[in-house]
Amino acid sequence: MIPKEILQKIHKIQITTSRMVTDVFAGQYQSVFKGRGMEFYEVREYLPGDEIRSIDWNVTARMGQTYVKKFIEERELTVMLLLDASLSCHFGSVKQLKSQLAAELCSVLAFAAMQNNDKVGLIIFTDKIEKFIPPRKGLRHVLRVIREALYYQPEGEGTNISLALEYLNRVTRRKTISFIISDFFDQGFRNVLSVSNKRHDIVAVTITDPREIELPNIGIIKLTDAETERSFVIDTSDSILRSQYKQGALQRIEEREKLLRAINVDSIDIHTDKPYEKELIRFFRMREKRLA
User: If you classify domain 4-32+76-291 with CATH, what class do you get?
Assistant: First the structure.
């Protein structure tokens, strides 16, 4: 049974994100993400200027008049949310954990898809595939996706993005819009990501906490790597150590950005200490500009 506080959280996220989607993202979402192509809509009588190749010869022969096929854009899409539930995501030094923010981002994207009548699916992963919810439509289904994103208790500890992408390719037959929501504390996924991005439209949603970039000067502290359980003691009053820590973090982020650019994967960079709405808007505007 789901605890009362989780149900309240789901209801709060539903209200907040659905309003945000309606007010800000609905039109942009539809203009940014295109359907799979054109689908047959109806036949009508031929008009001067219509292309000869659009003539429906079977209907023309049967009716004794020239008819052409009319097509419309096939709008229905499948949106897949690949949610990193590794232990490194259960960290936060500001208002919320990275995992909580990730669940809220899942909610925003799921509601945006729902309002455009698109299917939504969910893959929760760590160093194993934790949960798969096949893509479907409707509010009830979206609420289930949000519930699992918030409430699911993973068994794994580490992060394996390659495994998640390989699983995505196995369970989806058609092209999807796939958002990888993760802190990307992983290596060796470049080749699989590159191959997957040729089949799908993949967007990397990176989540970073400010303490993962810069250490405060608070003296001697003990740190533990959540995924490896390795612990070590450091003196944060050492300015050289703090500088090295920051340089290492910035270098890791720069390398990740270079990798994503090299294989043409768009990214949305989210920080736990900043409003994510601005970054989502920036992403949508960037995609709109590219398509213009």
Answer: alpha beta
